[in-house]
Amino acid sequence: MSTQGDRILDVSLSKIGGKGLFVKELEVAMIEGRADFAVHSAKDVPMALPEGFCIAATLRREDPRDCLVSQRHAGFETMPGGARVGSSSLRREAQIRERFPHVEVVPVRGNLDTRLAKLDRGEYDALVLAAAGLKRLGLADRIAGYIETDRSLPAPGQGALAIECREDRADLIALLAGLNDPDTDACVRAERSASRALSGSCQLPLAIFGEITAGSLHLRGLVATQDGRTVLRAELRGAPSEAESLGERLAAQLRQAGADRILAP
Description:
By secondary structure, the chain is an alpha+beta fold. The protein has helices spanning 4-7, 24-31, 90-99, 112-120, 131-136, 170-176, 182-197, 243-256, 259-263; strands spanning 37-41, 53-58, 66-69, 84-87, 104-107, 126-130, 145-147, 161-166, 206-213, 216-224, 231-238.
């Protein structure tokens, strides 16, 4: 299905309603019985699901990193002043501006092929994209370099696929349970919990990322101004079984650090 988020390509998501544009029409199809379940990029799923829906499974995460796509540059360090870097994400924009204020971050919309075509025509010097999308479409050879998570913290759910269905479909929920990856599920639940507590959307430079190492969930978060001049960070560790409470605690840390001043409308 082609959703409104797929069709409106000339305006940034933050200005036309956010991530829900990719999801709502699929939920209508499930309500009307035209679809049994929907597969989403987890980062595109609004933090609060409509009543009557649930995430039945979260699949094993692909590469969660952002990456640089360019025929001219392998990294931001080699770019000249004023180089045009295309990004559709305020989160990426803020983190690029914080570390590399000499480059110009400009909006880019459209599906992956459209964005790559714009790059190839010379409209941009580079693009910053999610590595997972390129890899899933067999385009990993277009990646000039990966941006590690300590340089560009990912969006909540980035790299993971979420399967959504109606809560009253116990038959489907039971069938889909076998696709759930427990580690990815715990990380994404923590990320979404923190984002929900911060009222996160694509209208705010917000990053939340969890990893499980040695049985512990390491959760990191970031809230920033779009210009990258103010960037607040927080992190904590805890048991994967406490994913939602970890997310809430991380959000509280960010608020204590001054996130409310950025989050205020």
